[in-house]
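ZP: hey, is the iron/sulfur cluster complex queued? I don't see it on the tracker
AM: it wasn't, my bad. submitting now with these inputs:
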Amino acid sequence: MKVDYTIPGCPPEPHQIWAVLQAVVGILLHGAEPPPSGSILGAGQVAVCQECLLEKNEKKIERFYRPYEIIPQPGLCLLEQGLVCMGPATRSGCGALCPQVGMGCRGCYGPLDGVEDQGARMLAAIASVISAGAPGEKEEDIEKQINAAVDTLADPAGTFYRFSMAHSLLNRVRINGHNASQGGM
Ligand code: SF4
Ligand code: SF4
């Protein structure tokens, strides 16, 4: 289905809706040029991480936690504490609301500009925080450590594609005539 414009967010933030309404008034009453068809309105263009005020230290972790399993240290990046946060893969515009109150971003603004697949981008971010492989360690031992860390991720497909499965690369993969995301794999 062709969509003229999208306002992302679940729900969109009031200041974003207000900005869109002002743009509409500008177009209707003052003859302003409408944005190109297909544009995403009322959102930023960078990742939520870039508007998140929590401190990032490139810390590596050995496992992930579900929100009820730990109380995060205030002021520090949640992903670096093992809590899944979709900030690296999600479009900005909300002011990083969820991380500021200790909850990982769930990705409701969808992928940011230049990211075709939100879940794949999130996988890359997850890989960047996993601690595995000291110098001289065997490859098979490193693989075991990575697998052990990944095994602590609850429902990765559901988590990484909560708001973007419909247009994900995963959903476009068809094996034996079935969508991979619907149990065809
Ligand atoms: S991963 Fe989450 S908590 Fe960490 S900086 Fe990005 S938005 Fe903030
Ligand atoms: S932090 Fe993430 S889940 Fe929360 S409102 Fe912003 S984009 Fe949505």
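AM: back. The mean pLDDT is 89.
ZP: great, adding it to the tracker
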